Amino acid sequence: MANDRTVNAFLSLRLPPPLVDALVALQETQRERVDPQDRDRMHVTLGFLHDADAGRLADAAALLSDGDWVAPRVRLTGEVRHGSWRLQKDPAYRYDSRTVQRQEQVRLGIEHTQELATLYAGTVRRLGIEEGDFWPHLTLGLAKYDFPTEEAEAMDLPSVTGAASGVELQQEMSVTEFRVLVDKPLV
Length: 187
Prior knowledge:
Strands 1, 2, 3, 5, 7, 8, 11 and 12 form an eight-stranded antiparallel beta sheet that branches. This protein has a two-stranded antiparallel sheet with strand order 4-10. A two-stranded antiparallel ribbon has the order 6-9. The longest helix has 14 residues, at about 15-30. Helix content is about 25%, strand content about 35%. The chain has helices at about 15-30, 55-65, 85-90, 115-125, 150-155, and strands at about 5-15, 35, 45-50, 75, 75-85, 100, 105-110, 135-145, 145-150, 160-165, 165-170, 180-185.
């Protein structure tokens, strides 16, 4: 990687397989309006490294590789949000809390456990990448067209829970494509 080249990367948790299966089933019920996140790319987003250069990526990789964290349980809270960091860069885009807009992510909140807080502090906070309005979530998919937020909030969310199997540093290749740079198993 050239010294002047930057990439967008993020820290994430791998989901437990039973939860992935339940989310795929939920995606099937939403397929008409939500382009589903690929099951192999489902994750809980923890934090973003925007415009990270080689040195910044190396710091994040070393932190993950050297860390020793307990695997947090992943349980949905029932909170559904929507939005898009990519669309926010477009001056014509206007967020509307009442409408999930075409190409916005449909995001599902996860429960904040002590293990998740410890992992978050040891990674996201330590890297200095906390965002004021950020909240750990998983992405169900991208909206295919505009629809009322209340319809997203009315989805019958799965109650399946389980321990995350690992924490990863991933490079964003596109809105829906990622490349795993570091994969750290959790205990």
